[in-house]
Design brief:
The complex is a heterodimer of chains A (about 475) and B (about 60). By secondary structure, chain A is α+β, with helices and mostly antiparallel strands. Chain A has helices at about 20-30, 30-40, 40-50, 55-65, 70-75, 85-95, 110-120, 145-165, 175-185, 200-205, 210-225, 230-240, 260-270, 285-290, 310, 330-335, 355-365, 370-380, 395-405, 425-435, 455-470; strands at about 70, 105, 190, 195-200, 250, 275, 280-285, 315, 320-325, 340-345, 350-355, 410-420, 440-445, 450. A three-stranded antiparallel β-sheet of chain B has the order 1-3-2. Classes of the chains: A alpha+beta (about 475), B alpha+beta (about 60).
Chain lengths: ~475, ~60
């Protein structure tokens, strides 16, 4: 039996260790000009600051209130020998973001960012960068937080539910045309036989945590905006502004630019924003929007269930592969159906089993064993948290073994080079092929080797030149 | 020297034995390299994979 390596840290999923946030990766690829314009807004600076890793945040706070630049050597003196690597990594990230420009002599924060971030912390100014609260409306009271949550959840789950059921032939409520277009552009869904079908990256997307899903879609939105000639800075600063707003409060649309007004309808479709109607002069950010840059969960509770325990976890998995999911949420059931054979359904409970067939189906859809396991881990019922390890090892191993089983045969097209005249001849050609890095298999005893397809033209040319030279 | 076009199969030895048996019915192996590697005819790859899948499927048991 092949040995299966247990994944380290499965029981302690932590966001802090996993590289930088995907928005920051996107920002690093933007021009200095774009970044400088973005840093003019206090709300953007504060939001970006919140997305950074703890050490990066510490560096910034250390430098924020210094009026003059600090020598690199002074800064370096704070760093212990063990911390040097982490410190240098931070400096690189901050330099890429143009927050702390690289210098061999002195370090100083980007002056635009410095003044904006100071303003964000101390308050003051009248830029309206954190949104302008709308005046109290006599006729309509603002929606309650519960209403907003229900609304955001309904919108978001419509999108996900549409994706998950696209392959099954039953079509639930359709999201708007723009959302469908976005899903198609991001490669999460693709047109097949005239209808949109979920793709393998779409299946993987479904198993991601909501926060990651949201950002993935928004990044795609940003990419699309570039093509639609919308101003990237306006969009980014609007998103970041939303993330600093207060849930359950109404904001006025007066200060918004034309681009941002156009975004309102898109964001309404995703459930990030609530408006009484399309022409309303005010809007409310939903929880999806206000938690964009924070670590609190973006979705309140699963619809209908009404208990908070549902967001923490609802899946009980036994060593005999039986799975009990305490949920009545159609989306969660549909997602489970991707890799579980469901047997029976009760008002608040679904029972199924993880079988070879169900896992094979998931693997065929492009979902990996690790994704299944991490989904089960993140959604494990609080009762399961008492177990160590969290998921039964037998089931984890078996899921990985089923995945290995799928890849029992690897194939690679190419050419078998054989019948060399002499050992020297063989080694000469083999060396050349090795330099090209195209050798897949070799056997000096049998004097033959197998080279990949793309190396063939070169090897043939090499041999021909050599024969011609010898003749 | 000679260059022969083909597909290199990398597999475990159990699968290789099945391939050898299948080859007796209908030949597709160009060169049997070692315990884990065989070179087969390029245009037979998908037929071989399908038959292999069916063969492996016979060795599994389902609860249902």
């Amino acid at each position: 039996m092949p040995s299966v390596q247990p994944q380290p840290n499965l029981d302690t999923p932590s966001d802090e260790d996993e590289g930088s946030h995907i928005l920051l990766t996107f920002l690093q690829s933007q021009s200095q000009n774009t970044l400088s314009r973005l840093y003019q807004r206090p709300s953007s600076c504060l939001s970006i600051f919140r997305l950074l890793r703890p050490l990066e945040r510490q560096l910034i706070t250390n430098l924020l209130w210094l009026e003059s630049a600090i020598p690199v050597s002074t800064m370096g003196a704070w760093v212990t020998r063990d911390g040097r690597k982490a410190y240098n990594l931070c400096l690189t990230t901050l330099a890429h973001l143009n927050i702390l420009p690289t210098s061999t002599v002195k370090l100083a924060l980007n002056s635009t960012l410095k003044s904006s971030l100071r303003q964000a912390i101390t308050g003051g100014g009248s830029s309206g960068s954190f949104g302008v609260p709308a005046e109290h409306d006599q006729q309509h009271s603002p929606p309650s937080v519960d209403d907003l949550d229900a609304y955001a959840l309904e919108r978001w789950e419509t999108i996900l539910h549409y994706m998950v059921s696209s392959g099954t032939g039953q079509y639930p409520a359709k999201p708007s045309q723009d959302v469908l277009f976005l899903l198609q552009r991001s490669g999460l869904m693709a047109k097949a036989n005239g209808a949109l079908q979920i793709t393998s990256s779409g299946f993987q997307f479904l198993l991601h945590p909501p926060h990651a899903q949201l950002w993935e879609l928004l990044l795609q939105y940003l990419h699309m905006a570039e093509e639609r000639h919308m101003d990237l800075v306006e969009i980014l600063s609007f998103l970041l502004m939303l993330s600093t707003m207060e849930l359950g409060r109404e904001y006025s649309i007066e200060n918004l630019s034309v681009t941002q007004m156009a975004m309102l309808s898109d964001l309404r479709d995703y459930g990030l924003i609530w408006q009484r109607n399309a022409t309303s002069k005010r809007f409310c950010p939903s929880r999806l929007a206000t938690t964009l840059t924070s670590s609190s969960p973006p979705l309140p509770t699963s619809s209908g269930a009404g208990t908070a325990s549902n967001t923490q976890g609802f899946i009980v998995l036994e060593t005999n592969y039986r799975l009990y999911a305490y949920t009545d949420n159609p989306l969660q059931i549909a997602v489970l159906n991707l890799f579980v054979t469901l047997k029976s359904r009760f008002p608040n409970l679904v029972i199924g089993a993880i079988t070879r067939e169900s896992v094979k189906k998931a693997l065929a859809n492009g979902i990996t064993a690790d994704q299944i396991i991490s989904y089960l881990t993140t959604h494990a019922h609080p009762q399961m948290r008492k177990n160590n390890p969290l998921l039964p090892v037998t089931v984890q191993d078996q899921i990985r073994l089923w995945e290995l089983e799928k890849n029992r045969v690897n194939s690679e097209e190419g050419y078998l080079y054989t019948a060399f005249a002499s050992q020297a001849d063989y080694e000469y050609v083999l060396n050349y092929a090795k330099q090209l890095d195209v050798v897949l298999w070799e056997s000096p005893a049998r004097r033959c080797f197998f080279g990949s397809l793309n190396g063939h033209a070169n090897i043939r040319g090499f041999i021909e030149r050599r024969t011609a030279g010898n003749a | 020297m000679k260059a022969i076009k083909g597909v290199l199969f990398t597999c475990d030895s159990a699968v290789k034995q099945i391939l050898l048996t299948m080859n007796e019915r209908e030949s597709f192996i160009i060169e049997d390299l070692d315990d884990h590697h065989v070179v087969i005819k390029a245009d037979e790859e998908w037929r071989v994979r399908r038959e292999l899948e069916a063969e492996l499927e016979k060795n599994t048991y389902s609860l249902e």
